[in-house]
Design brief:
binds adenosine-5'-triphosphate; Helix Hairpins; binds magnesium ion; 353 residues; 7 strands; seven-stranded mixed beta sheet
């Protein structure tokens, strides 16, 4: 290119030296020798300063751009800290290009992190599914083989083993059903069937169904004393029933023995705030974000003992997301847990006719 930093410095230096020397001749009547001397001095010093300034500002930026591109070429998307903090306003095109490249590298790094996370999530999920499926299949297989190996002749053993095999297969069925529900909710295959219904009445029915489960642990199921005795919401009745059942069953299973489970409804303008509270051992903060993940159980062995596969809260989360709302959890170890969510307020209708 014709205009390199040396030629620019030379031309600018020449123009500055001529103008300044002529001005000196006019203002202080400089002699010819003085004129030559001042011209040379101004010319040389401005050439040098302009050359250094151009090199410093332009080449420094270009060098950084070059290093960034080298890093990207080697698939290293880590941006130097200095560049990440370089946020000041500028119109310098070189700095702008450098920022664009840094932005690109940052986005690439985020994409790669996301892909890595998805990959490890997929691997974990596959391992979890196989493990969860394996357990009931192995158990049922064991009982059937024992029967085939001769135990079938003992009527009492036959009935007991067949009962156990049937239980394992029922568990397997629940697991597969839950997995299908989650994947259908995830891909949006299940459409919510919205209707106006009384969530209080629905919860009374759920309490009735769970009476035996609660009785076994001595748990009391109650409504919050100031909750209205009728509360209409606009939602999918069957799915919200599933959400409340999951939350109440969890509160019974993981709450303390002879504990208290309280369901409350608070009507606020256009929404109804629903919460399920227990007075059990609570959930430590480090688990709170993860309990909605598929198969996540806090104490794998203890939850397993209680018959859980860790899919209940994942289903709750998906159902509420399909209602354009979210589930919240607040808990302190030793002080119980509250799960809550908001629903759209419904119109009061006569459900019997
Ligand atoms: N009210 C609660 N108090 C304490 N821990 C809880 C509570 N609710 C859930 N958890 C913890 O969160 C985990 C995940 O709950 P989730 O309902 O998803 O699975 P699960 O109850 O183990 O199995 P599933 O609901 O599929 O039968 C549970 O295993 C339990 O450790
Ligand atoms: Mg559960």
């Amino acid at each position: 290119m014709f205009f390199n930093s040396r030629i620019i410095a030379f031309l600018l230096g020449f123009i500055i030296a001529i103008i300044s020397s002529v001005l000196l001749v006019i203002t202080i009547n400089l002699s010819f020798n003085g004129f030559i001397f001042s011209f040379l001095l101004i010319f040389l010093s401005s050439c040098l300063l302009i050359f250094l300034a151009l090199n410093f500002f332009v080449f420094k930026e270009i060098n950084e751009i070059y290093l960034l591109l080298e890093k990207i070429k080697k698939k290293d998307y880590q941006i130097p800290k200095k560049l990440q903090e370089d946020e000041g306003e500028t119109s310098n095109p070189l700095i702008l290009i450098k920022r664009e490249i840094a932005d690109f590298a940052k986005k690439k790094e985020q994409e790669i992190d996301e892909l890595k996370k998805l990959e490890s999530f997929r691997r974990e999920f596959l391992a979890d599914v196989s493990h969860e499926l394996k357990t009931p299949i192995f158990a049922a297989q064991g009982f059937v083989h024992t029967l085939l190996d001769g135990a079938i002749d003992d009527l009492e053993v036959r009935d007991r083993f067949l009962g156990k095999a049937a239980n394992s297969l029922d568990g397997l069925n629940v697991l597969v059903e839950d997995l299908i529900t989650i994947s259908q909710l995830e891909i949006g295959e299940i459409k919510m069937n919205y209707q106006h219904f009384d969530i209080y009445k629905l919860t009374v029915e759920i309490f009735d169904q769970l009476e035996d489960t609660a009785l076994k642990r001595g748990t009391k199921l109650r409504f919050y004393k100031y909750s209205p005795k009728s509360c209409y919401v606009y939602a999918d009745k069957m799915r919200i029933g599933q959400v409340i059942t999951n939350l109440v069953v969890n509160a019974i299973k993981y709450g303390k023995e002879k504990g208290l489970v309280t369901v409350s409804f608070v009507i606020e303008n256009e929404s109804v705030f629903v919460s399920v509270k227990d007075d059990g051992p609570g959930i430590e903060a480090k688990h709170l974000n993860r309990i909605f993940e598929r198969f996540y159980r806090i104490e794998k062995s203890r939850s397993k003992e209680k018959g859980g596969t860790g899919l209940g809260l994942a289903i709750v989360k998906h159902i509420l997301e399909a209602h354009d709302t979210k589930v919240f959890v607040s808990s302190k170890a030793g002080e119980g847990t509250i799960f809550s969510f908001k629903l759209k307020k419904g119109k009061v209708i006569n459900e019997n006719g």
